[in-house]
Structure formats: structure tokens, C-alpha cells
Amino acid sequence: MRQSAKTLLVRRRSESSENSGKDEVLEAFDAVCGGLNRTGRTPHWFTARALEDALIQGGCPICQAQSAAERRHLHSFLYEGMMSPLARQDFLDGGGFCRRHFWKAKQIEEQHWADGFGVSILCENLLEKVQEDLYQFKITDDFKRRGLLKIGRTAKRPFRLTPGKGCVTCAMLRDSVEHLLSVIEELLEDAGFRDRYTRAGGLCLSHLQAGLIQWKSTGTKEFAKQTAENRIETLIAELREFQRKHDYQYKAEPRGAEWSSPERAIEFLVGRMPERSL
Ligand SMILES: [Zn+2]
Ligand SMILES: [Zn+2]
């Protein structure tokens, strides 16, 4: 039964005209961002191009590049990764996708193949593990008390599957940050890139902090730090102006750029608002 489902999945995928090609660029992107067929170091030129594209979109180039990589990774997993026993085992050992990536995977599959067939197989596999877990769970075991007694690592965990804890897409995104930062470090030596980086607003706070810790080039660190300091200074001034215009005495004053400052401040602090449909 499982074999026939898998065969059907392969046929559906290969019949899909929309997905006839994981072309060379997509293969490279998977490699760049730790895709399923990780074969080695990401080509520098490809990451550089992805980051340049990300700057055009505006906002933190790493967040933008990761958003594209996330989609590619999920597409790739559903397209072929899940048919590899090793990749599927990784997925199951990690407790499946996290909430965000499970729903996103479902959305991507519906957009590309309109069937949700692959996701149904993944759910079935996970549910079989959950079934086993629950079957073996002994109601009489007091796991909480065992935990309090700090049996710690040697204590038997009540469940083998923790949903989404080791999400393979989250792991890929975490792994790719270091590489993206190292390429940005090199790109920031170029005046043109520096200019585009500044105009796009630079890195968000968490990626800036990671860069300042990781980068070796003093020049890059100084530049990125200064750019962020300028941005913060402008944001604080705009936020104060935004608040001032809320005073009834100044309410009639026309609204300016400061009106979008709360959104831009949040974007710097924690990244862009998630897409409404994930
Ligand atoms: Zn970011
Ligand atoms: Zn995830």
C-alpha cells in the first residue's frame, strides 16, 4: 500500500508540467542554503546574487534570502526529498515540520500540485509514530516527579516524538545564516554594495548581532555598526515625532515619513511582518 502511494507520488510529480525543471539555478540555491542534496560549499556567486536580489526587495537581505530559501527547501522536499529514505528519516526523527513549515508545505503543495498527496503521506508516517508512542505510554508512570528528581538525561522520555522540534527546514535556515553572513562580509567591501545595503536599510537586529560576532573584517564591522546606529537614531527621532503629532495641539500638522516609523522599528527589531497566508 505504501509502495503504491509512493509510486503514485512519483508519477504525479513527474507528470506535473509546472515543475518540469529544478534547473541549475534552483540546484545551486539548494546547495547555497543547505538544500536536501547538499553536495558541498555553496557557490559564492549564487549567494551573492541571491543577496543582491534580496536588497532590491528592501529590508534585511538575510531575512529576504531566507524567505526565498525556505520556500525552495519545502518545494524541494516535497518534490523529491521525501522520497529519499534518509531525508524522510531525518524528517521523522525531527518530529516533522514545525507549525509554520507544515502549513507552508501544505500551501506550497496545493499551489504546485493541487493535491496535498505528499503531505498526506508525511502526516500518515508521523501519526504512525505517535500511535506507537501512545501505545507505549504507561499511564501509571510519574514522569513529572522523575523530572523533579533530576534524573535528567538518563530519565526515559515519555514520548519519542516532539512535534516539529527538529524541523528540517528550520535547521536548514539556521545553518545557512553563517554562510550568508560570510558572503555579506565580502560584498560589503564593495562601495556599490555598501550603497545598496544602506539604502535597503541594512540587516535586522538579530542578523546584525550575528554578523558583528562572526565577521573578522574590522572595516565591515565598523560600517555595519555605523549604518545601524544611523538607522536607530533616525527611527528614534521619527518615533518621537510620531508621538508628538498625537498631541492634540499638533494633530492638525500634516503626516510625514514618521507615520510608518513603528512598522519600520518593528521590522528592524524582529523582522518583517509574516505573510498573511504564511
Ligand atoms: Zn534579518
Ligand atoms: Zn520549521
Could you estimate the helical fraction of the residues in percent? 55-70%
Which runs of at least 5 residues are low in confidence (pLDDT < 50)?
17-40
Instruction: List how many beta strands DSSP finds.
Output: 0
**Shape type:** globular
Ions and ligands: zinc ion
Number of domains: 1
- Chain-averaged pLDDT: 82
Q: Determine the number of helices (DSSP H or I, runs of at least 4 residues).
A: 13
Distance between the termini: 33 Å
Characterize the largest beta sheet: strand count, sense, and whether it forms a barrel: none
How much of the residues is beta strand, in percent? Answer: under 5%
Rg calculated over all Cα atoms: 23 Å
Could you explain the architecture of this structure?
With 278 residues, this protein is mainly alpha-helical. It has one domain (2-270). 66% of the residues lie in helices and 0% in strands. The protein has helices at residues 2-15, 24-32, 44-57, 61-79, 85-93, 99-113, 117-136, 143-148, 168-187, 191-200, 205-214, 218-244, 261-270. The longest helix has 27 residues, at 218-244. Residues 17-40 have low confidence and may be disordered. One zinc ion binds next to helix 4.
